[in-house]
Specification:
It contains four helices and no strands. The protein is mainly alpha-helical and about 80 residues long. Helix 1 packs across helix 3. It is elongated.
Amino acid sequence: MARRRKFTSEQIVRLLQRIEADVAAGKKLPFACYEVGISEPTYYRWCKEFGSPNFDLLSRLEVLEQEVEKLKRLVA
């Protein structure tokens, strides 16, 4: 019986980014999924759950999270 891996939300988003980059570079989706260790149905389920990763929004989110942490330290 195969063990299930547990991925965090961040790990899932990064894997989706990697798969989309590989597909954009010309790889077939099944092969890109195989390289990261997930099945195609898992890929489609994650896309439905997490949406298609948008690089600009993710980088902006990281900047905003850093600003929030900085402000929390200033207030504390």
